[in-house]
């Protein structure tokens, strides 16, 4: 008689795993992605911890607006580069970890460097770009080039 109870084995992470092939595959994938997002991908020499701040891109008749959430940073830690219709916002959030007498049960606040590149539908006027950092949100206004702005055409009757 065949047993329907799955066999278990001890894994390298010292957690008990089910040897059912599909369950084991799912668990391995979870471990892989968990390590990746926690900055442990590949073990020693793996990827360094990074984060990708959330952003919104809005379009108006004469400009594009970027709103990027980067709390806990200062304006001097941020960099904005515009080339044609491509905008790159990058920065570095310093780690605020003080370990004296603390035991961390969860660490979700990310530190490290980030870079977000956005391709816009048309070129922007780089001389008129304006940026403001308020309450942890970076707001960037990117005026469209004159040739990309809508123009009113009069109709002769």
Total of helices: 1
User: Helices and strands: which structural class?
Assistant: mainly beta
Number of strands: 9
Task: State the shape.
Answer: elongated
Based on the coordinates given, report the CATH architecture of the largest domain.
Sandwich
Reported for the largest beta sheet, the result is: 4 strands, antiparallel
Portion in helices: 10-25%
- Give me the strand/helix succession: EEHEEEEEEE
**What average pLDDT do the residues reach?**
78
Provide the gyration radius in Å: 24 Å
Spans of 5+ residues with little confidence (pLDDT < 50)? 5-15, 37-48
Q: Biggest sheet, strands in spatial order?
A: 3-4-9-8
Strand content: 25-35%
CATH top-level class of the largest domain: Mainly Beta
Oligomer: single chain
Count up the domains.
2
CATH topology of the largest domain: Immunoglobulin-like
